[in-house]
């Protein structure tokens, strides 16, 4: 049944987007947002490979190096909190673009730092931009992709994280052999020019426009998307609209929704998940290169080992993209966290026993398989738990709480290392992942295959 333009405006935007077949338009939108996500993660991953060189140049103790490694996470916490609130108030697209400018400027300034204090300040600015961009990428993707493939695309987008981790390592390997860590930060600033691609090709979220009562603008964007989908698939008509829950959204929006009676349990669950998962992940990964150097490897060799280990993250996120749609979000999340805990503990045992190179690489690759798979599930699950009027705030606050864990992680490792050695460091990481798994197992809900509006209500 063909609807008139006036009737289409009365149909919920989400219902119109959900009935669309996934095609080249969705994949192009995915590619643009995922590439911006990749560039952001590239900057974030650099510190893993550069911390050892920075520590040597400035003569830092392990505790001081840990605090420097944590500086960007302070900025990321502030950025994630502010971007969520701002995006729910002013829109996803403008805040997304501002975040790219901030991290580009921050990365450039890091290349000019002449003291650890100045570098820490610039890392904080860089973190501000990165913290703003990451939750907005997952929010934007979740609001465009239909429920039947949303989990797969969100998981694949986060798969850019291990790829960025590996690319940062390869860049470090070649750049550090001829230049300094400052050159790496300078190179990391140039992708901010990708802003112009985002500005041209990524529309504002129709779901957000509708939540603000801007129905005509939302309908206009969906009209254009529908025409593109029909042209690309050579369709004469689109599938029939199947209304989900069509009740009007309440006026309450932003942070107040997170603590409402309906969403309080989800908020506490996702905060616990992000806090412990990121404390364990960044506590270990920020230090992996430096720990390998402490074991006797040279700078270039430790970078190369870290890159090889990170390759295990690629099948990890691909498996997670399959698991979130086949098994569901909750079992996939628990599996990756428990698997990560087991392999972190095993890697700690292996790394502390003077192993041969192959044993170290295999155990490290299995550790990264589960840890990067965990990231893919995390970014899939979180935006699905909140309604449009508070989705960016929910993702931003979860990321903010996670960044508190990120901030504590490298610092705790710097404090634990002299007391308990590398075995104690990896034990700490394993316990963090187990705590996150227990929280999700006990309190998490399942969201697989449901429209965002259905989950919200």
TrEMBL record:
GO CC annotation: membrane
Keyword tags: Membrane, Transmembrane, Transmembrane helix, Transport
Pfam families (UniProt xref): Sugar_tr
Membrane protein topology class: Multi-pass membrane protein
InterPro entries linked to this entry: MFS_dom, MFS_sugar_transport-like, MFS_trans_sf, Sugar_transporter_CS
Keyword Transport in annotation: yes
GO molecular function: transmembrane transporter activity
Source domain of life: Bacteria
Keyword Membrane: yes
Major subcellular site: membrane
Stored Gene3D superfamilies: MFS general substrate transporter like domains (1.20.1250.20)
Subcellular location: Membrane
SUPFAM superfamilies membership: MFS general substrate transporter
CDD domains given in the database record: MFS_SV2_like
Domain Major facilitator superfamily (MFS) profile: 29-448
Transmembrane segments: 29-51, 63-87, 153-175, 181-202, 268-290, 302-324, 331-348, 360-382, 394-417, 423-441
Similarity section: Belongs to the major facilitator superfamily. Sugar transporter (TC 2.A.1.1) family.
Identification of the protein by name: Major facilitator transporter
């Amino acid at each position: 049944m063909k609807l008139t333009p006036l009737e289409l405006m009365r149909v919920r935007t989400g219902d119109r987007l959900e009935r669309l077949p996934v095609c080249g338009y969705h994949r192009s939108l995915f590619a643009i947002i995922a590439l911006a996500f990749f560039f952001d993660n590239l900057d974030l991953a650099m510190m893993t490979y550069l911390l050892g060189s920075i520590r040597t140049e400035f003569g830092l103790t392990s505790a001081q190096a840990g605090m420097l490694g944590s500086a960007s996470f302070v900025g990321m916490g502030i950025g994630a909190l502010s971007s969520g609130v701002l995006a729910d108030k002013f829109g996803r697209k403008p805040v997304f673009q501002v975040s790219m400018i901030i991290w580009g400027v921050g990365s450039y300034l890091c290349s000019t730092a002449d003291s650890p204090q100045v570098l820490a300040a610039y890392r904080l600015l860089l973190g501000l931009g990165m913290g703003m961009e990451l939750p907005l990428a997952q929010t934007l993707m979740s609001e465009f992709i239909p429920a039947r493939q949303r989990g797969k695309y969100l998981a694949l987008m986060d798969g850019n994280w291990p790829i960025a981790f590996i690319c940062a390592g390869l860049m470090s390997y070649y750049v550090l052999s001829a230049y300094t860590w400052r050159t790496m930060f300078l190179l990391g600033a140039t992708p901010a020019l990708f802003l112009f691609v985002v500005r041209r090709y990524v529309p504002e979220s129709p779901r957000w426009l509708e939540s603000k009562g801007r129905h005509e603008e939302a309908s206009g964007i969906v009209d254009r998307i529908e025409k593109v989908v029909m042209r690309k698939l050579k369709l004469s008509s689109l599938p029939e609209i199947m209304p989900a829950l069509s009740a009007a959204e309440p006026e309450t929006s932003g942070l107040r929704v997170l603590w409402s009676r309906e969403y309080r349990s989800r908020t506490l669950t996702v905060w616990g998940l992000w806090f412990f998962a990121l404390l364990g992940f960044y506590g270990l990964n920020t230090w992996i290169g430096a720990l390998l150097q402490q074991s006797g490897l040279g700078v270039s060799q430790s970078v190369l080992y870290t890159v090889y280990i990170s390759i295990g993250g690629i099948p990890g996120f691909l498996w997670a993209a399959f698991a979130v749609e086949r098994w569901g979000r909750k079992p996939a999340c628990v599996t990756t966290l428990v698997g990560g805990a087991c392999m972190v503990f095993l890697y700690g045992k292996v790394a502390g026993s003077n192993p041969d190179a192959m044993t170290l690489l295999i155990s490290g690759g299995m550790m990264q398989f589960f840890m990067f798979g965990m990231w893919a599930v995390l970014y899939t699950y979180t935006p699905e738990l909140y309604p449009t009027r508070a989705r960016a705030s929910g993702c931003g606050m979860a990321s903010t709480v996670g960044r508190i864990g990120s901030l504590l992680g490298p610092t705790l490792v710097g404090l634990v290392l002299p007391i308990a050695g590398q075995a104690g460091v990896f034990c700490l990481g394993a316990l963090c992942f187990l705590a996150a798994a227990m929280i999700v197992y006990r309190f998490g809900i399942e969201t697989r295959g449901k429209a965002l509006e259905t989950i919200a209500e």
